[in-house]
C-alpha cells in the first residue's frame, strides 16, 4: 500500500522485469561471444608455440598477421581483395536481378511458368561449378569469367525464390487492383513485385555466399589476380602461412558481405515484414 | 453451375440499396459482374446509358475482406485508386487529407495496416473505395468481420460518408438489421440460383439515429424480412448439405 503506482499497474513492472532479463541475456551472450573468439585465437597461438599443434600446417595467428602485413605492403593483397570482391558483387547483382526477373516473369503466363519450372529445378540440381572450365573458355581468364561463374551459381536460386513468391500472390489483391481499373502492368508492379520481394530477399543470404564461392573457384582455375589465385599460388609454393592469410581474408570478406546483405534486407523489406500473414 | 438466374435491378442515383440473401446466392457474383471483373453468360450492365459489361474501373468496389496492401502505409493505401489512374501523388494526398481527419484516421497516415485495429483498417479501405471518384460504390459485406460494437460505429460512419459524398451505394449484407438501418431499398435474393424474391422500400425517415432500430416501423420491416429469408436459408442449407 505504500507504493500506489506499483499497485495500479502491475503489468508495467512485469514488462520492466522482462526487459531487464532480456538485457542481461544479451549482455551475457555478447561477453561469451567475444571471450570465445579471444579464447580460440589465444589457444591457437599457444598450442602452436608449444608445438602441440604443428605450426607448419596450422600456422599461428601472429604469423598470419605478419604474413598478411608483408603481403599487403610488398605484395598485392589489397588488389586481390578488390578483384575478388568486385567479381563477387557484380556476379551477385547480375545473378540476383536476372534470376528475380526470370522468376517474376512467370506471373505473366501461367503456362510459361509451368513449362519453365522443371527446367529451373533441373538446372538448380546441376553442380554449376562443373561448368567452370567451359565458362573460362567462353569468357577468358579475366574478370568476366569470374563474374559468369558467380552468376551461374546465383541465378537459379534467385529465380526459384521469385517463382515461389509469384505463385503465392494473394489473388484477392490482384482482383482489388483490377477492380480499381489497373492495367496488368500496374498489377505486376504494385502487387506482384512487392509481394514476391520477401521471397527474393530470403535468397540473398545464401546467394552472396554462392557468388563468393563462384568467384574463387574461377580464380582457382585460371586467373591473374584475386584472393583465390593468391591461395592457389601459395599452396603451389608450399607457403602455408600465405594460404592461411587467404582463408582469413576470405572469411572476413564473407562476413562483411553478409552484413551488407542483412542491411539491404532490412531496407528492402521495410514495412512488409508482416506482409503475407497479417494483411487484413 | 448457375449462380444467378434472371436478375434485373434498377438503382436510382444517390440511393443506398442493400442486397440480402442466404449465403451462396450469387450476390458476390452479381457484384463481380457489375464491377466488370466477370462477364455474365447473358445480360447487360447499363450505367448512364452505356453498357459497362467487362469494363473494370467503372464503379468503385470494396471486396469482402477490405484488403489493404500490407507493405504500404495507410495514406499510400488510401490513394491507391487515384495512383492507378495516374493522379499525381501530392494532389491525391491533398484531397484525401480532410477525409482522413474527418474519419478518425488522422495520425495514422504513416502507419502500416498491421499496426491498426480492424475497424480502422476497414475505414481505410472504405475511404480508398470512396476516393476512387466513381459515382457508384459496391460494398460487399464490408463489416462482416467486425465485432458488434465496431460494426455499429462503422454503420453510422458509412451513413455519414454517404451523405457527405452523395454516392450511389450498393451494399451486400447478411445482417437484416444492418440492411434496414442503412438502406433506402432492399432486394431479397433467393437461394441459388439467385433470383430477386422481393423488393422492399425502407420508408424510415433520415437521418436515422441508433434508436431507429427500436421503432415500430423498423420492427415491422424486420419481421417481414425474417419471414422472406427463413425459407431461403433453409433451401440454401439443404443445397449445401447435398454437395
Biggest β-sheet of chain A: count, sense, barrel?
none
Which CATH architecture of the largest domain in chain A is right?
A: Orthogonal Bundle
Overall pLDDT level of chain B: 85
Q: Name the CATH homologous superfamily of the largest domain in chain B.
A: P-loop containing nucleotide triphosphate hydrolases
Using the CA coordinates, give the radius of gyration of chain A. Answer: 25 Å
Structural class of chain A: mainly alpha
- List the helices and strands of chain A in order: HHHHHHHHHHHHHH
Topology as H/E string of chain B? EHEEEHHHHEHEHEEH
Percentage of residues in DSSP E strands of chain A: under 5%
State the strand order across the main sheet of chain B: 4-5-6-1-7-8
Describe the structure.
The complex is a heterodimer of chains A (280) and B (243). Chain A is built from 14 helices and no strands. Chain A folds into two domains: 4-58; 61-274, MetI-like (MetI-like fold), CATH 1.10.3720. Chain A is flat and about 75 Å long. The longest helix of chain A has 40 residues, at 10-49. Residues 1-8 and 274-280 of chain A have low confidence and may be disordered. By secondary structure, chain A is mainly α. Helix content of chain A is 82%, strand content 0%. Chain B folds into two domains: 1-8 and 15-59 and 136-243, Rossmann fold (3-Layer(aba) Sandwich); 67-133, no CATH class. In chain B, helix 6 (148-165) links the parallel strand 5 (136-140) and strand 6 (168-173). In chain B, the strands form two sheets. Chain B has a six-stranded mixed β-sheet with strand order 4-5-6-1-7-8, with helices on both faces. In chain B, strands 2-3 form a two-stranded antiparallel ribbon. The relative contact order of chain B is 0.19. Chain B has eight helices and eight strands. Chain B is of the alpha/beta class and 243 residues long. Chain B is globular. In chain B, helix 7 (176-182) packs across helix 8 (216-242). Chain B has helices at 27-34, 74-78, 80-84, 89-102, 118-130, 148-165, 176-182, 216-242; strands at 16-20, 46-47, 50-51, 60-62, 136-140, 168-173, 185-189, 196-201. At the A-B interface, helix 9, helix 10 and helix 14 of A face helix 3 and helix 5 of B.
Amino acid at each position: 500500500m505504500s507504493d500506489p503506482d506499483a499497485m495500479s499497474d502491475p503489468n508495467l513492472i512485469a514488462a520492466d522485469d522482462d526487459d531487464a532479463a532480456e538485457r542481461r541475456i544479451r549482455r551475457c551472450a555478447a561477453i561469451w561471444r567475444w571471450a570465445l573468439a579471444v579464447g580460440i585465437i589465444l589457444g591457437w597461438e599457444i598450442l602452436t608455440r608449444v608445438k602441440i599443434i604443428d605450426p607448419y600446417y596450422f600456422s599461428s595467428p601472429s604469423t598470419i598477421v605478419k604474413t598478411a602485413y608483408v603481403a599487403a605492403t610488398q605484395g598485392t593483397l589489397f588488389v586481390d581483395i578488390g578483384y575478388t570482391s568486385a567479381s563477387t558483387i557484380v556476379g551477385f547483382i547480375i545473378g540476383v536481378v536476372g534470376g528475380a526477373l526470370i522468376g517474376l516473369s512467370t506471373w505473366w503466363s501461367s503456362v510459361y511458368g509451368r513449362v519453365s519450372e522443371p527446367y529451373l529445378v533441373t538446372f538448380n540440381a546441376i553442380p554449376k561449378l562443373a561448368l567452370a572450365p567451359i565458362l573460362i573458355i567462353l569468357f577468358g581468364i579475366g574478370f568476366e569469367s569470374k563474374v559468369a561463374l558467380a552468376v551461374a551459381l546465383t541465378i537459379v536460386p534467385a529465380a526459384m525464390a521469385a517463382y515461389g513468391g509469384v505463385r503465392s500472390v494473394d489473388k484477392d489483391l490482384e482482383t482489388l487492383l483490377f477492380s480499381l481499373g489497373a492495367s496488368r502492368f500496374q498489377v505486376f508492379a504494385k502487387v506482384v513485385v512487392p509481394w514476391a520481394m520477401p521471397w527474393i530477399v530470403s535468397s540473398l543470404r545464401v546467394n552472396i555466399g554462392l557468388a563468393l564461392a563462384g568467384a574463387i573457384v574461377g580464380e582457382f582455375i585460371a586467373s591473374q589476380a584475386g584472393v583465390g589465385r593468391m591461395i592457389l599460388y601459395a599452396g603451389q609454393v608450399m607457403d602455408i602461412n600465405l594460404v592461411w592469410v587467404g582463408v582469413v581474408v576470405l572469411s572476413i570478406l564473407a562476413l562483411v558481405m553478409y552484413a551488407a546483405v542483412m542491411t539491404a534486407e532490412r531496407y528492402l523489406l521495410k514495412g512488409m515484414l508482416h506482409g503475407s500473414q497479417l494483411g487484413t | 453451375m448457375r449462380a444467378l438466374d434472371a436478375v434485373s435491378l434498377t438503382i436510382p442515383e444517390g440511393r443506398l440499396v442493400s442486397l440480402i440473401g442466404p449465403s451462396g446466392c450469387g450476390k458476390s457474383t452479381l457484384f463481380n459482374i457489375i464491377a466488370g471483373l466477370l462477364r455474365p453468360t447473358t445480360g447487360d450492365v447499363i450505367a448512364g446509358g452505356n453498357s459497362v459489361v467487362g469494363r473494370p474501373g467503372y464503379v468503385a468496389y470494396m471486396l469482402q475482406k477490405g484488403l489493404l496492401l500490407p507493405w504500404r502505409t495507410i495514406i499510400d493505401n488510401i490513394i491507391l485508386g487515384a495512383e492507378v489512374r495516374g493522379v499525381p501523388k501530392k494532389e491525391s494526398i491533398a484531397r484525401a487529407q480532410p477525409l482522413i481527419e474527418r474519419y478518425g484516421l488522422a495520425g495514422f497516415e504513416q502507419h502500416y495496416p498491421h499496426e491498426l485495429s480492424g475497424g480502422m483498417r476497414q475505414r481505410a479501405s472504405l475511404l480508398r473505395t470512396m476516393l476512387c471518384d466513381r459515382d457508384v460504390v459496391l460494398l460487399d459485406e464490408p463489416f462482416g468481420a467486425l465485432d458488434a460494437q465496431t460494426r455499429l460505429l462503422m454503420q453510422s460512419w458509412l451513413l455519414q460518408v454517404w451523405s457527405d459524398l452523395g454516392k450511389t451505394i450498393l451494399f451486400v449484407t447478411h445482417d437484416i438489421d444492418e440492411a434496414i438501418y442503412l438502406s433506402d431499398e432492399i432486394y431479397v435474393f433467393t437461394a441459388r440460383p439467385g433470383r430477386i424474391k422481393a423488393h422492399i422500400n425502407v420508408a424510415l425517415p433520415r437521418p436515422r439515429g441508433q434508436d431507429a432500430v427500436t421503432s415500430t416501423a423498423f420492427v415491422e420491416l424486420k419481421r417481414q424480412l425474417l419471414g422472406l429469408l427463413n425459407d431461403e436459408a433453409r433451401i440454401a442449407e439443404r443445397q449445401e448439405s447435398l454437395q
